[in-house]
Design goal:
The chain contains eight helices and six strands. With 283 residues, the chain is an alpha+beta fold.
Length: 283
């Protein structure tokens, strides 16, 4: 549940300057000085008494003339390393020298904010532009973590019971809301019926067929990325094929997975595998 981000800079950035930027612009959100502490079935934010920004802004080096492959390996290694639970769950690792510039590897546990809010927070580290979005609009100051939001971020739990309990708690919250706001109760029954149908659908699905993707997890994460492609090019492909941009991207992902499975000796004929896709519900 750790979000990993990479920022590559054309110019050189020293650790002291990055530390000052973090203290000035990142730590305006008090939440990042807090540690999530479990308390029975819930959790609370507790301010770290020994907080030191130097513990979270670290320097790491790559070999001389290192390129994307070496940086990918480093990001994968950090993505596989758990965050220290005795400190706020985030770090910035600075590669001071990378291809004539610098690189910053950011790790932030998902409980601190959703991905859309974190994008705005990270953008706020740069110098602002006229009309820029205020990141504070997407990340409120500390309050108890929302169990239902966490459940939604996780997606489908291995045990259906886990989802039943979490979504059930969310429905109880909705029930209380409707009791206090009768005017909003018109859609309550529809929501409950949709939820019940979704649970039944999940519970009755068979397991995915056995492939190399069903092997036990190793705990090792590998990170890679490709050069950007033009959104307009994807849009044109969608128009020619009479489908959406999302259809094109999902097809590309399916094709890549199919080629990989074939390379591992799996038969992909009529093969169906499931994926959980996170969706932003922000207005």
């Amino acid at each position: 549940m750790t979000i990993v981000g990479l920022i590559v800079l054309e110019g050189h950035l020293g650790r002291a300057r990055l530390r000052d930027l973090i203290a000035e612009r990142f730590l305006i959100f008090d939440r990042f000085r807090c540690i999530p502490i479990a308390d029975g079935s819930s959790a609370n934010w507790v301010t770290s008494r020994q907080f030191d920004v130097n513990d979270h802004v670290l320097r790491v080096a790559l070999p001389a003339h290192a390129g994307q492959h070496e940086l990918e390996a480093l990001v994968g290694e950090l993505a596989s390393t758990p965050l220290n639970p005795a400190r706020p769950l985030w770090t910035f690792h600075l590669v001071e020298r990378f291809r004539g510039g610098s690189a910053i590897i950011v790790r932030i546990h998902h409980c601190y904010a959703d991905g859309m809010a974190l994008v705005q927070v990270l953008l706020s580290l740069g110098d602002g532009k006229p009309g820029a979005v205020d990141p504070r609009a997407g990340l409120a100051n500390p309050g108890p973590p929302d169990p239902s939001a966490t459940a939604n971020a996780v997606g489908l739990w291995p045990q259906v019971l886990g989802r039943v309990l979490r979504e059930g708690a969310d429905l109880l919250e909705k029930g209380l809301h409707y009791a206090l706001h009768p005017a909003d109760s018109g859609t309550a029954l529809q929501d409950a019926l949709k939820f019940a149908a979704e649970l039944a659908h999940i519970a009755t699905q068979s397991d995915d067929p056995p492939t190399c993707l069903k092997r036990p997890l190793s705990g090792v994460r590998r990170v890679a990325w490709a050069d950007p492609i033009s959104l307009e090019e994807v849009r044109i492909i969608g128009k020619v094929l009479g489908c959406t941009i999302n259809d094109v991207l999902v097809s590309l992902l399916s094709g890549a997975l199919g080629r990989y499975l074939e390379s591992q000796g799996d038969n992909v004929t009529a093969l169906k595998i499931r994926a959980t896709v996170p969706v932003s519900l922000r207005s």
